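Dock D-MYO-inositol-1-phosphate; give full complex structure.
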Amino acid sequence: MLNSQELNFEQIKGQAEEWTREAGQYIKKMMESSFSISTKAHQHDLVTDVDKNVEKFFLDKVAETYPTHRLMGEEGSFELINDLEGIVWILDPIDGTVNFVHQESNFAISIGIYLEGEPIIGIVFDVMGDELFSSIKGQGAMVNGQRLPKLARNSLNEAILSFNAGWMLKDRRLEKLVESSRGVRSYGVAALEMAYVACGRLDAYISFNLAPWDIAGGFALLQEVGGTATNYNGDPLNFLEKDTLIAANPGVYDEVIEVIHGEK
Ligand code: IPD
Ligand code: CA
Ligand code: CA
């Protein structure tokens, strides 16, 4: 049974932001020393001690402060989570680890706090850019304390899209999107790319292989500004398994679906 402190979402958001900034400081400190880097499934998939320590930091803090909340993190704790009952923190301790290791920038801490599978709080923190995107259900989204406006419908011919070049090799229909849009960018950090859609810097972000921790924080932000996010087929996202993603400005979303799948 959740007590009132464990359901006080304003307080939880403030606490999560504080821990996120603290974890950001830790990451910056670690960048000045050496840490171990290893590959996971393939050469695109890196993990460092820093990723693991940030996850452990959040696991300890959440368990100590909100004993009934559960945490699903990329670096191991996801193995204990098979459902989204109650309150679940969905954490990517470092999203964009390849950027973290190779560029020392363009990586984020991402947290989505979900109640019975629905997004309540979103936090995406660009550690080196010092930009903290956050949202709470029904109260809008902010970046560094400044409110983000609701997204006005944009059209594809004026849209900036984002996806990894590798996805074009998997689905040539993406070429049509390149031709029809104003331009394509690729940042390699899913959570931040979703946050950029939420604040209008991008108009759509597409990916073919994302895990719940890549998208949970960004999806919460998008919900608050009227953005649209589904899988590549247009079906609702699920936060227990890997899936494809289209996260977009609502006008651009409709056109993207039309280009990919034809009129529905
Ligand atoms: C990755 C990044 C990347 C996306 C990959 C993710 P990680 O997360 O979000 O942009 O293309 O699919 O796995 O491994 O750096 O946390
Ligand atoms: Ca990730
Ligand atoms: Ca990660």
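Observed: The chain has eight helices and 14 strands.
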